[in-house]
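note to self — DONT lose this again. spent like an hour looking for the file last time. sequence + predicted structure for the chain T wanted, 224 res
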Amino acid sequence: MHNIGHEIWLIRHGQSMANAGEMTTAPGSAGLTDLGRRQAAMIAKAIPRKPERIIVSPYDRTRQTARPSMARFPDTAVEEWPLQEFTYLLPAKYNGTTLEQRRPMENEYWSRLDPAYVEGRGTESFLGMLDRVEAAWERLRQMQGFTLLFSHGQIIRAFFMLLFEGFLDYRQDTGRAMSMFLGLRTGLFIPNGSIMRIVLSEENAVPVLSPLSMAHIPPELRSR
């Protein structure tokens, strides 16, 4: 039985230096730009009430995005969960490269459509990423109240895919799951700072997902 009145906000981090086209040194090291910090402040202002918990990933850009919300609600517990961005390229490929320079390597990875493929140390398979998201969902569905979860674009897409499909058993058809996710990479646009709301209630056993919201960030300050 689902808990009553559990609302979860899945929030993508603000614009990072990598999003802005700057060089990176490692998958998790790209901090926020000035625009990203402004987006983070707008997220904090949009929160309607005190959350029971704030969850961040291990990557710098999610904690920096959550910082204004943490400052607004200093008594709210902050937890770090393993919901970092899906990293399928070797970490060395991030050192001294931009997002555009990595694009051909990303395209090569996705052209394989191999859910179990692992490029090497410091990377994970597509199935490994889905396992992380599924484990997080099992924790979330046992909670009550209001949760802010600051994460990443591909993690939010994974939540969307698994929940929209009624939490499909992706292990039964891993190729279909990866093909579906590949479509979401281009078909589901998730801007920096956007919010996807999930509501769990006893009255509605199926999680209710809201459309992505950017109402809290004016058009001139939006980015991808």
